[in-house]
Amino acid sequence: MKTEPDSGVRVSLVIPAYNEAELLPRLLDTVDIARRRFRHGADAVEVIVADNASSDATAEIAGHRGCEVVPVDERRIASARNGGARRATGPVLAFVDADMRIHPETFNGIEDALATGKVVAGATGVRLERMSLGIALTYALFMPLVWALRMDTGVVFCRRADFESVGGYDERRFFGEDVQLFVDLRRLGRPRGQRLVRLRSFKAMASCRKFDIHGDWHYFTDLFRLIPLMLHAPGATNRFAEKYWYGNQRPPDSQEVKK
Known about the structure:
The chain is an alpha/beta fold and 259 residues long. It has a single domain, classed as Alpha-Beta Complex (Spore Coat Polysaccharide Biosynthesis Protein SpsA, Chain A). Helices cover 40% and strands 16% of the residues. A 7-stranded mixed sheet has the order 3-2-1-4-7-5-8, sandwiched between helices. A two-stranded parallel sheet has the order 6-9. It starts with 10 loop residues before the first strand and ends in a 13-residue tail after the last helix.
């Protein structure tokens, strides 16, 4: 029997975006499908694009597609995510990067997980849009940590009340803010008997543009140097970190989508 759509927003999807005119439309295509597949109807999911001082058509594209556009001037990923979350009206928050594509049953999967009462937060995990030896070995290297810690990427979700209780993403951090959020939420949920969860049946599709730009082996040569830096101090950064997360996000031969 078909479920009649409910009134009111149940999930707020926040998309931090900096100069994402090229890839944002393909993400929004998949979001539209997932909204239509949501058992409570498409209107039960609001989509918020946190425009992080873009100089391209990101904001115009998001607005044209019916998204709530929130300008965030502070060029920091944590600030963009928090800025979008502050505009949210739903009891559940979900976050996804603009270069991903989500599973059609994402919102149903999130609701079912939280409805158990045993989950404080989670993530869908990802599949990669291409594979190579370097990417495969990088993926294999990280998976034991993902399995052990239940911390993953993809579409990250939690209850808005819990997000606000832990203070959201740590805006002192230039990177690693997603890991810190999971640490904070896991600590919050432990006394309540709640855990982190991975929704492996609803994996998002992740872009490989970082590999396209920096090379398929760059995790082994560059990124591991940042782990001690992340652990050293919340506000720590260096030239590579600034270039990796806050510089040019497109491969050299990429063409920007025109308005």
